[in-house]
Design brief:
Layout lengths: L13 E2 L2 E2 L11 H4 L2 E2 L17 E4 L2 E5 L14 E5 L2 E4 L5 H11 L11 H5 L17 E5 L15 E5 L26 H11 L6 H9 L2 E2 L61 E7 L4 H6 L6 E2 L22 E4 L18 E4 L8 E2 L3 E2 L1
Parallel strand pairs: 6-12, 11-15
Antiparallel strand pairs: 1-2, 3-10, 4-7, 5-6, 7-16, 8-9, 11-13, 13-14
């Protein structure tokens, strides 16, 4: 599956003692028969902060076709299968820089990117027998999209990703970058443990993969995008993704100082449940382990709909030769500002991928739910 992301994020963090550039038949009726049929008429219910949770939207739950058999769908999204989720409250937007800053101020929490990398968490992502790098190479930092200054072949993501010492949530593009004036942008450079720590402090939890997809669809059954079947609505974009009609991926604009990244929550209209940026802007951690074949396994179960699935018991990804098939990965959803028609079409509700839980990246954040 093509992606804008370094599949081996921390796996390829260290080679030869040098920090490298990169981190590493369908459902019941098929997508055509279900295309954009409303699962139920959506209704926006927002929490008031008194009787209901502030800055959260009610997602009523129900039965839906999870996954996709659309021509744009990757194999790990297939086949569609009936799933039922119970109702829940979900954050209207990604957890923002301002919100995460408040958490850090109150708890003193130190994120994964701000700590010296743990060799054991890196080792399990590497081919067996990979030697441990020198200690002075294991420095705090994170994966950063740096782009290129000219068009390049899209077969080697290390051309546009780098492990940058000093990159973290306060400095998402490296030590010279800042989140000043971006309080309402999604916080990024967040690892899976970071998201869990924030969730515990906030009294919430990460959504399951099924909850996330149900919410992202906004009441539309099997629509290609979270807003319908057409990418543009009245000629206007509905999400923050890389528009290749304006600029080839991964070329960054010198005129803009090479800047490319997240946008403030609320830049685009909400979906049918009142949720912002469910696709595009920044990838989002969900609770489940990632298996590339999980949807195929679910579709074979005799009893449908499947009630509130919690995901597989372990990871499985055969797409990375030389890497253990069960190297730990958690599911991320929603795509990001880097996704585009030429290399990544993950700004779709069914798109999914796995990511190293200990690898923060400059396009990866999260949002939470409460039941």
């Amino acid at each position: 599956m093509a992606s804008t992301d370094p599949k081996h994020s921390r796996r390829r963090l260290l080679v030869g003692g040098v920090a490298l550039a990169a981190a590493g038949a369908g459902g019941a009726l098929g997508w055509q028969a279900w295309r954009s049929r409303p699962a139920q008429k959506p209704r926006i219910v927002l929490g008031d902060g008194v009787d209901t949770p502030k800055d959260m939207a009610w997602v009523p739950g129900g039965v839906f076709l999870m996954g996709s058999d659309h021509k744009l769908a990757y194999p790990n999204e297939r086949p569609t299968h009936d799933v039922r989720v119970a109702g829940f409250w979900m954050d209207v937007a990604h957890v923002t820089n301002d919100q995460f800053a408040r958490f850090v101020q109150e708890t003193g929490y130190v994120t994964t990117a701000e700590q010296k990398p743990d060799w054991e968490s890196i080792r399990v992502q590497l081919p067996p027998g990979t030697p441990r790098p020198p200690a002075d190479v294991l420095v705090p930092g994170a994966m950063v999209f740096v782009g290129t200054d000219r068009p390049v072949r899209l077969d080697d993501y290390s051309r546009w990703w780098r492990y940058v010492p000093g990159a973290d949530w306060r400095h998402p593009h490296g030590p010279d970058s800042s989140i000043e004036g971006k309080g309402r942008h999604p916080v990024v450079q967040i690892s899976y443990p970071d998201a869990l720590a924030y969730a515990k402090w906030a009294g919430k939890r990460l959504p399951t993969e099924a909850e996330w997809e149900f919410a992202a669809r906004g009441g539309l059954e099997q629509a290609t995008y979270g807003w319908g079947d057409e990418l543009l609505v009245d000629g206007a974009r509905q999400a923050n993704y890389w528009d290749v009609s304006e600029r080839r991926f991964p070329v960054v604009s010198p005129r803009a100082g090479g800047a490319v990244g997240t946008l403030e929550a609320g830049t685009f209209p909400p979906n049918g449940y009142g949720l912002l940026d469910m696709t595009g802007n920044a990838w989002q951690w969900v609770a489940d382990w990632y298996r590339a074949d999980y949807f195929a396994q679910q579709a074979k179960l005799k009893r449908h709909p499947i009630d509130n699935p919690l995901g597989p018991g372990e990871s499985y990804d055969p797409s990375e030769p030389g890497v253990p098939l069960n190297a730990p990965k958690r599911v991320i959803r929603g795509g990001s500002f880097l996704c585009n028609e030429d290399y990544c079409l993950s700004y779709r509700p069914s798109a999914r991928r796995g990511s190293d839980p200990y690898s923060p990246m400059s396009h990866l954040g999260f949002r939470l739910v409460r039941t």
